[in-house]
Please model this.
Amino acid sequence: MPQCTAKQQYSNGQQCQREAMPGKTKCKAHGSGGVRTAAGRAACATAKYKGKNDTRANRLAYQQTMLELYTIAKLLNIPWIGRPPQDKNHKNLNNATA
Model:
């Protein structure tokens, strides 16, 4: 069987020593292959991610809620602990004036 063609990150770029999967160029650790069809890519784009119940819709709702809480905290001069949330345009609101 051929050898895996992946380079090891912490071994000065040496090649992986495992055998490649049959018909592939990478071993099990390095080569999932990823999604290859358009239908598979569309399914991945709409699928859940980051945990069991965390969908894109839930994530957007959470981001919007945190943005509203941050805006209220700024208006009331309440210190915000942690990284400030970002709006839809990905602009940092840390320097926002109320």
